[in-house]
Write a structure and sequence with these properties.
mainly beta; four-stranded antiparallel β-sheet; 45% strand; globular; WD40/YVTN_repeat-like_dom_sf; signal; Glycosyl_F510_1955-like
């Protein structure tokens, strides 16, 4: 999510990061203390396991289905404001931490990339100059982002090395499908079918501030009414579970399974079960 969008006051209140930290419960039979993480900016499924990547103020962490939290991966403590998975690569943006290697950029990371699931990172574009608060990848590999200091959509078709400007867009989140690029904006859900050059309203969609694409290509999101919303293959939206407080991050990990970070912590929501994977301490 970005933090400059001129969204309504209620939406801004929901988008604001409010929780101070999340952590997994201690493992039974050991004195090991789980890592403390603060300000979660994004969650994403690991394409090679059942784990989640958790992008935070202090690096990228992993979270198992059993609630075991580890990290930051590789010891990298950068503030991952923007984060996305593209095939087997991780891409991030944000700000360096106190132990972040200087070559990754300062005061902004630009776009950095890891090809070993976070163990090492390399700068690839806009080093030192740009902080993406919104960063997402489309099914064709196109990357889309919105920087914290601008209102232009930025687009890359070469794995993030070169970026071109698209439409002027104040959006809280982006999601790309085979139908086009969706944006959760002040005026409602928008769709671009020309690779981000222009956007048009999507009729009968709820007002959302978080978006993701489910495996079947339909959308799901978090509404300004404080609830999850799900779209079916005909484009009709259904209101699902209410959340507890503002959602810091959201992702769809299956057609009917979601992970959201709200006042409870990192929560997995399925049709028949809700599990707090990592509660707020």
């Amino acid at each position: 999510m970005n933090r400059y969008s001129p969204l309504p006051a209620f939406a801004i209140a929901l988008i604001a990061v409010t929780a101070t930290g999340c952590a997994a419960p201690q493992t039974s039979g050991t004195d090991a203390v789980p890592p403390v993480i603060e300000h979660i900016h994004g969650v994403a499924a690991d394409p090679n396991s059942e784990n989640l990547f958790v992008a935070t103020h202090g690096g990228i962490f992993t979270l198992t289905p059993e609630g075991a939290l580890a990290g930051p991966i590789g010891g990298y403590d950068f503030d991952a404001m923007g984060f996305t998975v593209l095939d087997d690569a991780l891409l991030a943006s944000g700000h360096p931490g106190t132990q972040t290697p200087a070559e990754l950029g300062s005061p902004n990371l630009g776009v950095i990339r890891s090809d070993d699931f976070g163990e090492t990172w390399s700068p690839i574009a806009l080093t030192g100059t740009t902080d993406f608060h919104t960063l997402t990848a489309g099914p064709d590999g196109t990357l889309y982002g919105i920087a914290s200091d601008g209102v232009d959509l930025l687009i890359s078709t070469d794995n993030g090395r070169e970026w071109n400007r698209g439409a002027t867009l104040a959006a809280a989140d982006l999601a790309a499908t085979n139908d086009g690029l969706y944006a959760a904006a002040e005026e409602g859900l928008l769709l671009s079918t020309d690779n981000g050059a222009s956007f048009a309203p999507v009729a009968d969609a709820p007002l959302l501030y978080a978006l993701d694409v489910r495996p079947d290509g339909t959308l799901a999101g978090v509404g300004t009414d404080g609830a999850l919303w799900s779209q079916n293959t005909e484009g009709t939206w259904q209101r699902l579970d209410p959340l507890q407080g503002a959602a810091q991050a959201f992702t769809a990990i299956g057609d009917d399974s979601f992970v959201v970070v709200d006042d409870r912590g990192i929560v997995q929501i399925a049709p028949d079960d809700t599990t707090v994977l990592a509660p707020v301490r």
